[in-house]
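stage 2 :: seqdesign
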C-alpha cells in the first residue's frame, strides 16, 4: 500500500480508538468547531469521506446531490458542510460510528486500488487522487484533534504530519488566490518533525519567503486551530505574515 494511504488508514485508526466504546455524554461533548459536538464532527467526517469515495469513483455529482437533497442552496463551502450536518444530525451513536467506520474503510480501499495520479473532481475543482488522499488525511487529523480535545485527551504528534505540511505548502498559491492576493515569489518551509528531523519543502526556484519552526505548529496554524502569534513559527521574506495568515489544508 502506498505510504500516504497507510497514513490515512493509521489516522482513521487513531480516531476509531477514541470513538470505540464512547458513551453518550462523550458524543455530546462540545468541540472547538462552533456549534458542533463530537457526534457532529464524526458525522461531518462520514459525509466528506462519502464525498471523497464519490470523487475517486467518478460519482461525485451524484453523492453531492444525495447529501444536498432538501438542503437550502449554500452560500459557501462552510455553509454547505454545516447544512449537511444539520440535515442528518441525531443519528444513533452506534449507527453513526458504523457509518463513519465503514465509509473510512471504503475510502482507504478505493484509494489503495487506484492510480493516485488519476485526476478527480473535488470541492475546489480537479486534483489528483494523491492530493485528495492528502486532504482527507489532513481533515481527519484536524477533526481527530477536535474530538480528542473535547474529551480531554492529548495526542502525540506523528510523522503523519509530513504530507499534511507538504499539502499546506503546495496549496499556498490557491490560498493566496482565494484571498485575492498575489505571492511576491516562491515560499519554502524549513520545518522540524515531531522526532526532531528536518522537513524541508523547497521550490524549484529560489525562495523569497522562508517559514521555519515545528511542523506540528505549522499544521495547527494551517488547520485554523492555533493563531500564528501563539506559535514559535518564524522566518523572513515579504510574504511571511500573509503565508501564516492564509496557509491551510482545506478548501473554503
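stage 2 :: out
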Amino acid at each position: 500500500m502506498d505510504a500516504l494511504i497507510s497514513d490515512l488508514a493509521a489516522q482513521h485508526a487513531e480516531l476509531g480508538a477514541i470513538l470505540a466504546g464512547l458513551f453518550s455524554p462523550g458524543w455530546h461533548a462540545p468541540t472547538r468547531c462552533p456549534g458542533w459536538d463530537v457526534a457532529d464532527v464524526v458525522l461531518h467526517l462520514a459525509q466528506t469521506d462519502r464525498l471523497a469515495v464519490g470523487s475517486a469513483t467518478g460519482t461525485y455529482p451524484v453523492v453531492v446531490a444525495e447529501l444536498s437533497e432538501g438542503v437550502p442552496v449554500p452560500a459557501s463551502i462552510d455553509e454547505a458542510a454545516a447544512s449537511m450536518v444539520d440535515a442528518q444530525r441525531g443519528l444513533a451513536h452506534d449507527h453513526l460510528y458504523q457509518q463513519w467506520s465503514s465509509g473510512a474503510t471504503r475510502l482507504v480501499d478505493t484509494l489503495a486500488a487506484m492510480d493516485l495520479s488519476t485526476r478527480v473532481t473535488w470541492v475546489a475543482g480537479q486534483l489528483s487522487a494523491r492530493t485528495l488522499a492528502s486532504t482527507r488525511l489532513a481533515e481527519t487529523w484536524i477533526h481527530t484533534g477536535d474530538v480528542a480535545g473535547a474529551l480531554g485527551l492529548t495526542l502525540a504528534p506523528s510523522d503523519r504530519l509530513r504530507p499534511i505540511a507538504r499539502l499546506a505548502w503546495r496549496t499556498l498559491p490557491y490560498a493566496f488566490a482565494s484571498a485575492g492576493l498575489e505571492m511576491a515569489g516562491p515560499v519554502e518551509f524549513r520545518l522540524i518533525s515531531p522526532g526532531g528531523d528536518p522537513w524541508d519543502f523547497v521550490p524549484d526556484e529560489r525562495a523569497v519567503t522562508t517559514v521555519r519552526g515545528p511542523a506540528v505548529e505549522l499544521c495547527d496554524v494551517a488547520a485554523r486551530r492555533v493563531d500564528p502569534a501563539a506559535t514559535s513559527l518564524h522566518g523572513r521574506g515579504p510574504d511571511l505574515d500573509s503565508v501564516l495568515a492564509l496557509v491551510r489544508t482545506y478548501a473554503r
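stage 3 :: structure notes
- The first helix runs from residue 3 to 19.
- The radius of gyration is 18 Å.
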